[in-house]
Amino acid sequence: MEQPTIGDIEDVLQKLGSGMEGLNELYKQAIRRINDHPEVTKRLAKRILIWITRAQRPLSIVEIRHALAFRENMLKFDLKYMPDMEFLTSVCAGLVTIDESSEIIRLVHYTTQEFLQQTHEEWFPQGELYMTKVCVTYLSFDTFENGPCQTGEELKQRLESNPLYHYAAHNWGHHARVAAVIDQEVIDLLECKAKTEAASQILMAVRPLESSELLSNFIERIPGELTRLHLAAYFGVEKAVDHFLRKGDDPDLKDTYGRTPLSWAAENGHVAVVALLLKTGQVEAGSEDKWNQTPLLYASANNYEDVVELLLENGVNVDSKNIDMDADAKIIGTYSGRTSLLYASANGNVVIARLLLEKGASIDIRDMDGKTALAFAIEGGHEKTVELLLDNGADVHIQDKNGRTPLSRAASNGHEALVRLLFMRGAFIQPVDGYLTNLTWAVRHGNKLLVQLLLDKGHLLDERDSYNQTPLVHAINKNQVALVELLLDRGADPNLEGSNERTPLSWAIKLGDVDIVQLLLHKGAKISYKDTGVSSLLLKAAEEGYMDIIPHILDKDVQNETTDAAMFELLFLAVEMGHTAIVQLLLDRGADMSYSGIDVSLFPSNAFTERSIDIVQQILDNEVQIGASVAVIPTLLLLAVEMGHVAIVELLLDRGAEIGLRNRQQLWVTLLAGAIEVATEIHHTVIVQLLIEHAHYMYI
């Protein structure tokens, strides 16, 4: 086999069923072929593979070509060292491919990635050190010796002209930390203030930035005065931190955001660097930045348990709070008025929460919205954390600024187990909990078991919320048929008015849910209620396009309250929508196409379409049976002429002749004259000709 293709890999996978032994042998053969290449080709292939395998994100073709152009002691980028794109795949024994749509070079199969990740120390034992050298050399080019850019346009140009710059600035420290070898190139870069600040400027970017305007705004927000020690601590490069501490760098120096090397190391979970900085005895373990964020807050927010434990051992304030954010703070991602316990509870980190509680963290301390640790834990559905907080005396009745209790948060997120736990710990149902009732919160989430639980605990069925709505109306608005049925079965009032004096039935009709309409009618919903009578409900359903609801309402109209005008309008709407069954139903109920109280010109121009001919035939057949065609045909004919529907005009003219309108000569002559006038005005020559021919046929 010359080289493994995707087909070869899939064939092996199919034969294997499970396990990697056969594939591993396939990949080992590919590595052996690479090792058989000449030295230059072999080195290039392995560098391509290490970049694809060990890079912190997928690299574009241009990025990897820039990375491969690396040479020892380069002072500036040289295009002459960039390999051709086609050569990138040919030297790798079939292990890589180019995704043309994304312009990313990648491995041919996910199993290839797994194999190379597991074995990279065998085929490229110093891969991370090599990647560190490439990134650091790139950041050290002479072009960056002027330091950070001063304008967005300048920064945009820098990124475009140096494609690997963004990756190198964000990831050199990661590769250096993993390599665990302090290289002189790293020290040289960090000792150059201008180049360090230039790299830091890109490092602080939270997302790819394209326009020069966005870049200008970004430049104004990034922290300044990031020293080499800040940068080494940020990435957790322990040997570099130790090197600069030995050289006498201030371990507690703050950047323009008020952040120390300890703050950056704690945020990124570099426990060895945190320990090294604390060991100096020259740092304030609980130092606050411009938002009162402490190293403990950063570590807690990012789930770094070892760092939290280490900081607590150094006596930091366990209840320190950050403050309200401004635009700059969004770069850091802080939240208003949170403590470390609030962070840990929101994350569901039981280990950190327990460490903090053991050090005396205030259990019911609130953030700026009045939310406690219990509220955050419940909101995230973190059952173990909730149990820990309750075991330590968390208040189950405490309300936030919106009046919401832990119970309402559990209900609104559908956490049945947490609701049960809160009831076991003494929680009780409050009338309105944060502008909605507890039952409504559960209904809106759609959790039937939770709704049943709340009802079993005594929650009132028809209790209104701050919007004057009942749980039943919320269930209808969420199209929760099962919950509507449950609430009605448990006794919810189907006629209770809510906001705007609307009944549950009117909401169901507006939403067009036939099943819910049937349920409500079956449970006694009144179809004639104040100003919402039968006609009003029927028209509402038709106007919303929910014709299937109409039969159910008519079936309940035992007192025949539907007006002739409403029936006539419904008939037109049914015709317009092509609902033959509804048309027949309305005709059977006495809908009259010749109803004199309606101006037919007010109906929409698409009341009749060419597909309506079957419905028109249906109406005519019905009118023959009740002997009213003499009145109906003129109405329909004028509409059909006005709308320009030739086939319907022909049908009506033929039917008019059949049923004897010719015997009412004056009426017919007047009708035809009017139709001809209308057709002429709209320049419909075909219909004009039809009408003239028909008149000629009948009277000559």
Automatic annotation (TrEMBL):
Residues 41-118 form the GPI inositol-deacylase winged helix domain. ANK repeats lie at residues 224-256, 257-281, 291-323, 336-368, 369-401, 402-434, 467-499, 500-532, 571-598, 635-664. Keywords: ANK repeat, Repeat. Pfam families: Ank (PF00023), Ank_2 (PF12796), WHD_GPIID (PF22939). It comes from the Eukaryota. SMART domains: ANK. InterPro entries: Ankyrin_rpt (IPR002110), Ankyrin_rpt-contain_sf (IPR036770), GPIID_WHD (IPR054471). PROSITE patterns: ANK_REP_REGION, ANK_REPEAT. Gene3D superfamilies: Ankyrin repeat-containing domain. Transmembrane segments: none annotated. This is GPI inositol-deacylase winged helix domain-containing protein.
